[in-house]
Design brief:
CATH superfamily of the largest domain: Periplasmic binding protein-like II
Number of domains: 3
CATH topology of the largest domain: D-Maltodextrin-Binding Protein, domain 2
Distance between the termini: 69 Å
CATH class of the largest domain: Alpha Beta
Shape: elongated
């Protein structure tokens, strides 16, 4: 039996049909007619000498030979697609694809994109807001803004710490009149954020109360799984949030939130600029990193006049 491969178009048609278990859907994916796709698969079957599909009423099923072939074509075409995308990015210096968490995208990145676009009109900016750690090659991503302690997820990658995180109580200005002291927060509607619960030591309300010398156990009025939702609730007067500076700077600067107490709780968790090693020198990536460095420098203003306690010092 010859190992000579059938035409690549026939294998591609088979791969699509095997994934969809539908000739019609496979034809739609490949932008060909169902008749053309059926012809390609028939050509492959003639080359193989046996069928790869059982044709049923309004359905198809893989034969044993089809199952064996599908086990190889699926990963192979996925690898080819990833390699092609990576190869195209080598020579592409006008497109920048960035992934970041939903809260960071909504509260920090998106409001500033117009400034970046004005300074770099030659760069087409794309971003994906997700908490999932994307694969640079498979997911066609150039840069990731990641939050946490760092570690093995960054192994073999360029990783630069760009924003040190810390938290302090924040609320609508009208609400601040009702709760003028840290002690008064015992009776305030406290908003909790579940997206930082993975951090150890914690940067939550119990930790901040301990740092402030308050013995009472904080009572949570509402919990949010996304930080930007908690911030929006606080900005509308719905409660007091333990705001993270990188996510609240715009609300603070525009007066929707105030941070009346000097005590801030620090954490070793931070935002990092991550990309494949060597990609940091690509024109569009280097431009984005330089722009980010300039933007985050303004966050230092919010540290002035504050007292800081490390979360590790009040951990239980």
């Amino acid at each position: 039996m010859s190992d000579y491969l059938p035409p690549l178009t026939a294998l591609r048609a088979f791969d699509a049909a095997a994934r969809h278990m539908s000739f019609a859907k496979a034809a739609e994916e490949l932008n060909v007619t169902p008749a053309a796709l059926s012809f390609q698969i028939k050509s492959l079957e003639e080359h193989l000498g046996e069928p790869v599909f059982h044709r049923l009423n309004r359905a198809v099923e893989l034969t044993e030979a089809g199952r064996v072939l599908a086990a190889g074509t699926g990963p192979s075409f996925a690898g080819l697609i990833a390699a092609w995308r990576a190869t195209r990015r080598v020579s592409d210096d006008t497109t920048l694809s960035v992934t970041a968490g939903p809260a960071f995208t909504a509260k920090w990145l998106a409001p500033r994109l117009f400034d970046f676009a004005q300074k770099h009109p030659e760069i087409e900016f794309r971003f994906s807001a997700t908490l999932r750690i994307l694969d640079f090659d498979r997911d066609d991503v150039d840069v990731a803004i990641r939050f946490g302690m760092g570690g093995r997820d960054d192994d073999g990658l360029f990783s630069k710490r760009i924003i040190a995180d810390w938290v302090t109580p924040m609320m609508h200005p009208a609400l601040a009149e009702q709760y003028p002291t840290p002690e008064s927060l015992v009776g305030a509607p406290l908003l909790d954020q579940l997206d930082t619960k993975f951090l150890r030591p914690a940067i939550d309300w119990p930790a901040w109360f301990r740092a402030a010398g308050l013995e009472q156990t904080p009572e949570i009025a509402a919990s949010f799984n996304q930080a930007d939702h908690a911030i929006d609730a606080a900005a509308s007067g719905g409660g007091v949030v333990l705001g993270r500076i990188p996510l609240t700077a715009k609300d603070l600067s525009e007066g929707r939130l105030v941070a009346p107490f000097p005590l801030g709780l620090t954490t070793e968790a931070h935002y990092r600029f991550v990309c494949p090693m060597g990609a940091e020198t690509k024109p569009q990536v280097a431009a984005f990193l330089e722009w980010m460095d300039g933007e985050v420098a303004s966050l230092d203003e919010y540290r002035k006049g504050r007292e800081f306690v490390a979360a590790a010092d009040v951990a239980r």
